[in-house]
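Incident log, support desk, overnight shift.

02:14 A customer reports that sequence design results differ from what the structure should imply. Their input is reproduced verbatim below. On-call engineer (initials T.W.) acknowledged and began investigating.
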């Protein structure tokens, strides 16, 4: 411990102290994590690459600190927010300016944490199924084409179609695979302009008219994140 002549200090890149560490003591550590997940990197890697980054690299940074430090719960929640934001949709967090005093930086970090932990940065959005084409033939690949769509709990799917020739049925996995109304009490929508608010989990929709689902691919399956 010769490198630490006075506390607080850093040893092997970790903040150490003879008393409880404050939020501001973790600022540089959080900055290192944020530097790994800049928005511009989204254009250079696919979902698999982003998943590898958040699971292997960022998790390893946490484990390295856990070896020597009992990390506070708020830090784990904060890092999880950063990882989810980068994995599913780009949300960068700026933690204070370098020229700010340590006191002001600590207050700024606290405000960012409060906003993130309360979910203040998340806003529901509307997704028009099939985009300009609407709920029609070949829509099955729409959730991932032309780009991956990060569906979140509370978002709204808008189905637009000719009600004389189409409908929308929310089905389970069996119903999706067989293009049948399953379970028997599955909800059927037929207004031609349906608005469905999403809940978390795997959700499936099919067209139950004629063989539009089986032969025309008028069905979608999507994963909704919290």
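02:41 Re-run completed on a clean worker. Output:
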């Amino acid at each position: 411990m010769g490198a630490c002549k006075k506390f607080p200090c850093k040893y092997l890149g970790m903040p150490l102290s003879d008393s409880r560490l404050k939020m501001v003591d973790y600022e540089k550590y959080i900055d290192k994590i944020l530097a790994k997940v800049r928005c511009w990197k989204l254009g250079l890697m696919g979902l698999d690459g982003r998943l590898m980054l958040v699971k292997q690299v960022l998790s390893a940074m946490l484990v390295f600190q856990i070896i020597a430090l009992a990390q506070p719960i708020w830090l784990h929640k904060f890092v999880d927010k950063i990882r989810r934001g980068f994995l599913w949709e780009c949300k960068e967090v700026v933690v204070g300016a370098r020229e700010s005093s340590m006191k002001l930086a600590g207050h700024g970090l606290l405000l960012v944490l409060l906003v993130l932990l309360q979910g203040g940065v998340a806003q529901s959005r509307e997704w028009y199924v099939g985009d300009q084409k609407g709920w029609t033939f070949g829509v099955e690949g729409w959730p991932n084409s032309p780009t991956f769509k990060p569906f979140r709990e509370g978002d709204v799917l808008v189905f637009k179609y000719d009600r004389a020739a189409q409908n929308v049925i929310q089905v389970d996995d069996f119903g999706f695979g067989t293009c049948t109304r399953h379970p028997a009490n599955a909800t059927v929508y037929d207004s031609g302009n349906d608005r469905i608010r999403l809940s978390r989990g795997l959700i499936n929709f099919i067209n139950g008219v004629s063989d539009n689902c089986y032969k025309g691919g008028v069905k979608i399956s999507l994963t909704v994140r919290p």
